[in-house]
Amino acid sequence: VEYVSTDLDDIIKRILPKSESIPISFEPPACTKDKINQGIIWFRLFIQILIRMNDMDQAKNDLLRLWREEYDGNTRELKVADEFERKFQPSRAVWCAIGGLHVAETLLSTTRRKELAFDFAKRAQMKSNMVPVVLEIRVESKKVTLPYADISKFCEFQNEEEVVFMMGTISQVNDVHYSDREKTWIVKLSLCGEDDPRLKDMIDYIKYEIKDTADLVTLANFFIKMGESNMAKEYYRKYENQLSTDDPNMKRIWQGLSNIADIEGNYSISIDDYSKAHECFNEQIDICQNLPSHHPQVGKCYANIANLYELQGENNLALENYEKAYKIFTQSLPAYHPDTTKVEQSIENLSLQKNSTKETSNQSTIWEMIEISEDQSEANKIIETFLIVWLDANVNKTKDNEETYKALRTSINYLKTFDNLKEGEAYIQSIHHEKIILIVSGGFGMEIVPRIHDFEQINCIYVYCLDKAHHEQWSKDYSKVKSVIIKRNQLVEEITEDQKIRNKTEDSLPMSILNRTAVAKETTTKDIAKEMGSILWFQLLIDVLLRMEHTDDAKIELIKTWRENYTGNSSELNIIKEFERKYKREKAVWWYTRQSSLYRILNKSLREQSIDMIFSFRFFLTELSKQVSQLYQNYMQQIKASHTISKPIHVYRGQVIAKEEFEQMQNSIGGFISINSFFSTSRNESEARKFAMGSSVTEKLRRILFMIEIDPRLPTKPFADIDGISFYPYEQEILFMLGSIFRIDKIESDEENKLSIINMSLCSEDDFELKELFAYLKEDIGEEASMITLGNILLQMGEYDKGERIFLRMNHQEGLINVA
User: Domain ADP ribosyltransferase: where (predicted)?
Assistant: First the structure.
């Protein structure tokens, strides 16, 4: 029971809006300018759009219609509405907001009279979950703020000395205390200026969104961003009814309606409601008939329909619609645009499926004979480049072999044993992305080596036997046979030492090569377009990942994933335990250069663009990037102070690469190499040459020496001199940042040593030919770095399943969802 009275007017006064709660949003003190409450940003943007819209007559009619609908049958309120319709003038707006109209609760009404404010607070009957509060607001007239006004002379109650603050006004909370004398809480506030650093990003964002004008389309676009599709449709349709069919703004409406159909259709796909998705995309096609036939939005319609047909297994219909989309995109978009690239790739994939015939080879025959689905599943979990396959009839039967197995896992984690030759051979054929170190018994070796020797996945072979002389005789004809060994210790030592070199020289660099024509704007070749799209989107993906804020959960996830993949490997598990206990951010480079699985996992994940693994290791990628950047800044300061900044820096790296990659480089002189991982080099040329010469040249592999020139005066991706802080402190090592891009200047040949010397220079970020395109793509996804941005980039790359997994990971309360 709030109040007892015999006076009805007295009761009405107590119910009226003077005691209504005020809609307020609070920001906790820990929030920074980058973390302004999303609700505040949306509300301020919404209010600014409404204020700038130039449709006062229509707005007044809408207000009256809603007012009368809400108070249908209330004679008194309807009379007020009629009076408002007849007599309202803009000069009387403040007076209308004071009397009791419900719009008043969106304005903050205050008084200059402190005692009156306390009186109001005390008069309001409090419930158990409410307390009396007086807001004491300090206003500095010098600050540029949202408008406020002394409206005393306009008010019905002039003695209240009322000051009204604009909707969306933001204040800083300076103090909260309880007054024993007044029995009321006092909250001291100060009005924030629009130039407050904490509000700058919000103000800039609002200005960017609405620019100079605002109309119903602006409002509808705003509702799309809030996820209010039905509201957006209502305002698009409302504006459509006001315009003639030839009005240029009609295109904006049709594009907006098409975007909504696109969003709703793809949402329906995500919940497997294909029937609803067809309905949405058909609606999108109908809307887009109003646009020019070559408009990109029309192409997007056909691409959506094609994707839906493909998911339903209707490949012919999918191909037909992809081809329609491709034709439109090639007319309206640059050749390198990711939309064109995705559609093009889909056409190629479907065409290959359509024209493919069933192959019958010796390999497939063996595959059909043996069921190895479990092995296939396990192969997908291999997170390093190299694995050991051990074929021996007694491999699982002796204590000696068990000890050998444990010892070998210290250098190569994934080791698969087979005592059945056919099963082992079938498993070897199932490996497509990794490199196999094969250990084989003499008897099995004589039979299988001739058949599998030339398989690309076979890196090298060790024959482990009892009769060395006999097996050396037949094996000398096979170049991949590294050794014939009879002693266990020798086998372990040789594989371990060889593997250290292989990790440095044969673990393929995650790199992409662009020839010079690939960066020319006029180029339309589809292979170039496809390559450019994938390279640049991956660079953007990494850029967003590194700019994202990571919680403590990121480190926990890294350790959990790392540990799960090395179960049973005591050597690696000890290293992981040490990382968990002792890791510090200033030791990131030390950990990366340490002889462990960490850098091998990162390199393979980046080379294969394994998004799940990259995301799991995002904590370390970010930490390492930050340390390289800091070391780069320190180094630049040092060489500036010593006046040696104009002196070029030369570094080197020796390794082997695939023959196809080398030939691509030969055809790309003047073009670029993008290294999609951290890139380790040395100032010591002879040491780099030694690494290159330590590997054999085969039909599939070529020895190379990278000779790289750095001009320290140019703004480049960071690089770090890690001499002294590396795990190997005296190797004169220079580490380049993830995603560094180099120009291929020339290629020379050292015939005597079968060594190719690739001369490169580190590209300036200012003069790099792809800068304009990179900036375009970056603008397309926005500056925000969040899980949502990451997911959106994966969708742009055509990695729908990976994008879905990112979205499923999300806390849906994070970030702004950009669905426009």
Answer: 586-757
